[in-house]
Design brief:
There is one protein chain. By secondary structure, this protein is α+β, with helices and mostly antiparallel strands. It has four domains: about 160 residues, 3-Layer(aba) Sandwich (Rossmann fold), CATH 3.40.50; about 130 residues, TATA-Binding Protein (2-Layer Sandwich); about 160 residues, no CATH class; about 90 residues, Orthogonal Bundle (Arc Repressor Mutant, subunit A), CATH 1.10.10. The chain has 27 helices and 29 strands. Helix 2 crosses helix 3, helix 2 crosses helix 8 and helix 3 crosses helix 8.
Length: about 775
C-alpha cells in the first residue's frame, strides 16, 4: 500500500512507498458536483473524466489544497458543503499523465498480483480445487476481475456475481457492462432462493454484529451455484475476492490466503489486499473499467442498498440518488425503530446509527426466546413456545435413533446411549450427567433449529457429505446414510445452531439485572489513579490530587476490585485489604495486577460483568452500540454513563490494551473498542480466576462442562475465565492442562476419555495464587 504526494499538475499525484500517512482517496465527477450544488460556486465542463479528488471521503482536494468539505448528513439529511475557495475553474484530470507519473510502481503492483494469482492457481489446482472470482460490480472486484483475467485462461475459472437482491440499479448495469467487456469469461449469477423482503422479515434487519445477510444472500448462494456449475457436491473452491486491508481494522489483520474462514469448502484469496484506493482508482481509470456509475455519484463503496456497515455519507447518497430503490428495506428499519427507539425522532435515531447495534430479537415481531432449557436432576429439558421444525427430523444429525417405545426413543450420540421423550412441546434427554459439553452444545443447536429454522440454507453448505438438505417447503431433510454426525451444521453459528436463532433470540442486557451499573459518575478505573492509591493508601483521598467526584468514583472501583473495604468511619473511607497490600508490591502498571482486578470486577461490577458475558470476542464496538445493547429498561443517561466509565477504563488502564478487553481504535474525534481477548493469558491469572469461581460457587471440583454452562448466563453464580478474559474456548482445555503441569500444588485435572474434571485444593484460596505472582 502506497501513500501519495500531490504534484503541481492538475489533479496529478505521485505514489510514494513508506508513507507515514495514507488517506483514502476517490475521484470526484460532475454528477456529484451537480447534486451538491457546486455549480453555483465553481465552473466545470460536462465531461466523463474526474475533475478533482476527495480525501477521507468528504474533503475535496485540488493539488493538495482543500477547496471544499462536506459536513454532516445521513439518510434523510443532505450533507452541507463548506466552500473553502470560491470561483474555481475545474479542468478534467489527464489520466494518461497520472498513469505516466506512476507507471513503474503500478506495473510492479500488477505484475506481483498476476504472479500471485498464477501461483495460487497452480498450487491448488493440483489439489483438485475449483476457482471462482467473487464479483460484486464494485471498484475492488473490477480490478480483481481484470487481474485474474490477465493471469488465467477463461476455462480455468468462473465469475460469480452474488446478486443479493439488494443491489443498486447502477450495480446491475455495471455487471452487464462487465459481461460485455470480458465477453470470453464465464459469468454466472448466484441468488438466494428467498427474497430480501422475506429474509428481513424473518431475521429482522441486520446489524453490525448480526450480518446474517452476508451468509444468506452472498456466500451461501455462491457456493451452491458453484456446486451446480461443477456438478460436484463436495466442490472445494478458491474464491478470489477484492478485500483490501485499508478498508477496516479487522481486514488489516487478514492474510492473503485464508482457509475455512467463511466456509469449510472455501479458501479466500485476496490478491489486492495491500492495494490502497489511490492504486485502485488509478488502475480503473487507466484501463477504462470504472463501470459502476455509483462512483460518479460520490459513493466510496457500493454493495447492498441499506447496510448496517455503511457511513452517514453513503447512507445519504443512497437516499438522495436511489430513494425508491432503498425504501422497502429502509421501511423495515423504520418499523423496527418505532418499537425500540429511545429518542423522539425516528429519523434522527436512524441517522445516529442506533439501529445498527441490533443484536437480538427485542422489538421484532418474530423476536424473543422460543425455547427454554431446564436441568432437572439427571435430565435436560427443552420447552418450546413456538417451533418451525420437527425434533425427530432434525435430531438425526446428533446420532442414530435406534429404538422407539411409544413417545420414548433411544439414541446413540458420540458413542453413548441416551433416552429422550417427546411430550407436547417438551423434549427431555437423560442421563444428563453422562453428557460432555459437546453433546450439550449440539442438543441446544438442534433445539434452536427446531424453534427457528426458516430454510435459509446456511447450514447446507457446511455439510461435507450432502446429508443436510433444505426441501422446497423450507423443511430440513437429513439423509441418515450420508450423515457423519460431524456437527458442522450446528457449530458454525458459534453456539446457537441456527442463524435465525442467533438473530432473534434475546440474550442481551435486558436479561440481566443491571440495577447499580451506574456507580462511577462516568469515570473509569485509571492506572494513574491506582498508582496514586498504591503510593499513598487511603491518605490519597485527602490530598486533593483528584476532584471530589473522581475520588468518589475511585472508591467505588477500589471496593469492587476488592482492594478497599468500608470501615466504621463511614461509607466514604475504608481500609486497604490484604489483597491490596499484596498487589502493591507488583506495581500499578503490572498487567497481572489488572488481571486480578478485572477478575474481581466480574463478581462486583455490574457493567463489567455484563460486558464480559454479552460483548463478543473479536468484535469492535462503539459507545452507542454498547448503550443500545444494554436494553431500554434504564434511562439513556444511566446506560450512557455506565458505558462511558467502562470504556474510560479500557482507555486508561492495561485492561484495554494489555489484557485486550477493549483496545481503543481512533475513530474521528472518538474511539471504537475492539474486544480481541487475551490471546497470551498468564497461567497464574487463569488460576486466580478458577479459584474465584470455586469460592463463589462453593465447588472446588468441577468440570469444563459446568464452566461452559456458566458462560453467558448472568444468573450463574460463577464467571468462568473464558468469559472474563475473552479466551478462545477451543483452547481452554489445553490452557488448564498446562496450568496443572506448572502448578500441581494448586490444581489437578482428569481429561481422559469422557472426563473433563478440574480439581482445586480446598485448603487454598484465590489470594494464595498471588504467591505465584511474586516468583
Amino acid at each position: 500500500m502506497y501513500g501519495y504526494q500531490w504534484t503541481d499538475n492538475n489533479g496529478i499525484y505521485r505514489l510514494v512507498p513508506n508513507a507515514k500517512v495514507i488517506k483514502e482517496i476517490r475521484p470526484v465527477f460532475r454528477e456529484e458536483l451537480d447534486y451538491f450544488g457546486f455549480d453555483a460556486h465553481w465552473q466545470y465542463p460536462k465531461t466523463d473524466a474526474p475533475l478533482l479528488w476527495a480525501e477521507g471521503i468528504r474533503r475535496y482536494v485540488l493539488n493538495g489544497e482543500v477547496v471544499a468539505e462536506a459536513v454532516g448528513g445521513g439518510f434523510y439529511t443532505k450533507p452541507t458543503i463548506s466552500i473553502k475557495k470560491e470561483g474555481l475553474t475545474l479542468n478534467p484530470i489527464n489520466v494518461d499523465r497520472l498513469w505516466k507519473e506512476n507507471e513503474s510502481l503500478m506495473r510492479g503492483l500488477e505484475d506481483a498480483a498476476v504472479e500471485f494469482i498464477r501461483h495460487v492457481h497452480d498450487e491448488y489446482a493440483a489439489k483438485g480445487m475449483k476457482f471462482v472470482v467473487a464479483f460484486s460490480g464494485g471498484k475492488d472486484s473490477l480490478v480483481l476481475l481484470d487481474l485474474v483475467a490477465k493471469s488465467l485462461r477463461p476455462d480455468e475459472f468462473v465469475v460469480i456475481f452474488s446478486n443479493t437482491g439488494m443491489e443498486f440499479s447502477t450495480t446491475i448495469e455495471a455487471v452487464k457492462r462487465a459481461k460485455a467487456n470480458w465477453s470470453k469469461l464465464h459469468f454466472y449469477e448466484a441468488k438466494s432462493h428467498m427474497l430480501p423482503e422475506f429474509t428481513w422479515d424473518a431475521f429482522g434487519p441486520p446489524g453490525r454484529r448480526m450480518r446474517w445477510c452476508c451468509s444468506v444472500h452472498k456466500s451461501v448462494p455462491t457456493l451452491l451455484k458453484l456446486r451446480e456449475i461443477t456438478g460436484d457436491y463436495d466442490a472445494k473452491a478458491i474464491v478470489f475476492e477484492g478485500v483490501r486491508a485499508e478498508e477496516s481494522f479487522a481486514r488489516s489483520e487478514y492474510e492473503p490466503i485464508r482457509e475455512g474462514v467463511k466456509n469449510i469448502s472455501q479458501v479466500n484469496v485476496s490478491p489486492i489486499l495491500s492495494w490502497g484506493t489511490a492504486e485502485v482508482y488509478l488502475y480503473l481509470l487507466k484501463n477504462n473499467i470504472l463501470l459502476n456509475d455509483a462512483y460518479k455519484e460520490g459513493f466510496n463503496r457500493v454493495g447492498c442498498s441499506v447496510c448496517p456497515m455503511s457511513s452517514p455519507w453513503r447512507d445519504h447518497l443512497s437516499y438522495g440518488f436511489h430513494k425508491e430503490e432503498i425504501q422497502p428495506l429502509l421501511g423495515v428499519v423504520e418499523e423496527y425503530v418505532e418499537k425500540v427507539k429511545p429518542a423522539k425522532s425516528i429519523q434522527k435515531y436512524i441517522e445516529n446509527g442506533g439501529w445498527r447495534a441490533r443484536m437480538g430479537g427485542r422489538g421484532l415481531k418474530n423476536g424473543g426466546n422460543r425455547v427454554t432449557e431446564v436441568i432437572d436432576g439427571d435430565k435436560i429439558i427443552f420447552r418450546f413456545t413456538k417451533r418451525t421444525g420437527n425434533w425427530l427430523d432434525i435430531a438425526k444429525i446428533l446420532g442414530e435413533i435406534v429404538e422407539k417405545n411409544g413417545k420414548s426413543y433411544t439414541q446413540i450420540i458420540a458413542h453413548q446411549i441416551y433416552t429422550f421423550t417427546l411430550l407436547d412441546e417438551t423434549v427431555t434427554y437423560f442421563p444428563y450427567t453422562q453428557m460432555d459439553r459437546f453433546v450439550i452444545s449440539r442438543l441446544r443447536g438442534v433445539a434452536y433449529k427446531v424453534a427457528y429454522c426458516v430454510g435459509c440454507k446456511a447450514c447446507v453448505v457446511q455439510c461435507p457429505t450432502g446429508a443436510f438438505e433444505i426441501m422446497e417447503d423450507r423443511k430440513i431433510l437429513v439423509r441418515e446414510e450420508l450423515c457423519t454426525h460431524c456437527g458442522n451444521c450446528i457449530g458454525f453459528t458459534e453456539g446457537k445452531g441456527c442463524l435465525v436463532a442467533k438473530s432473534l433470540s434475546t440474550t442481551e442486557g435486558n436479561n440481566m439485572q443491571l440495577k447499580g451499573m451506574n456507580r462511577y459518575q462516568t469515570f473509569g478505573f485509571r492506572r494513574p489513579w491506582l498508582e496514586h492509591f498504591f503510593e499513598h493508601g487511603t491518605d490519597c483521598f485527602t490530598q486533593g490530587q483528584l476532584g471530589n467526584r473522581q475520588y468518589d468514583a475511585l472508591r467505588v472501583w477500589l471496593r469492587e476490585a476488592e482492594l478497599l473495604t468500608p470501615s466504621n468511619k463511614g461509607e466514604k473511607s475504608g481500609t486497604m485489604t490484604e489483597l491490596c497490600n499484596r498487589l502493591i508490591h507488583l506495581g500499578a502498571g503490572n498487567p497481572m495486577v489488572w488481571a486480578v482486578i478485572w477478575t474481581n470486577l466480574a463478581y462486583n461490577s455490574i457493567i463489567s460483568k455484563w460486558y464480559m458475558l454479552y460483548a463478543q470476542t473479536g468484535e469492535t464496538y462503539d459507545k452507542a452500540e454498547l448503550v443500545f445493547m444494554l436494553g431500554d429498561d434504564y434511562s439513556p443517561s444511566t446506560r450512557d454513563n455506565a458505558v462511558t466509565a467502562l470504556l474510560e477504563t479500557f482507555r486508561h488502564s492495561p485492561v484495554g490494551t494489555a489484557l485486550k478487553q477493549g483496545i481503543p481504535i481512533p475513530d474521528g474525534t472518538s474511539f471504537k473498542f475492539m474486544k480481541q481477548g487475551w490471546d497470551t493469558p498468564e497461567a497464574a491469572a487463569i488460576l486466580y480466576a478458577l479459584y474465584k469461581f470455586a469460592e463463589e460457587t462453593g465447588r472446588y471440583t468441577f468440570t469444563l462442562t459446568q464452566l461452559n454452562n456458566a458462560r453467558g448466563h448472568a444468573e450463574a453464580k460463577g464467571v468462568d475465565p473464558v468469559a472474563i478474559f475473552g479466551l478462545n474456548p477451543n483452547n481452554f482445555k489445553a490452557i488448564v492442562q498446562d496450568i496443572a503441569l506448572q502448578y500441581p500444588e494448586f490444581i489437578r485435572v482428569a481429561f481422559v476419555q469422557d472426563l473433563d474434571n478440574v480439581m482445586l485444593v480446598h485448603e487454598k484460596k484465590a489470594i494464595d495464587v498471588l504467591d505465584i505472582f511474586a516468583e
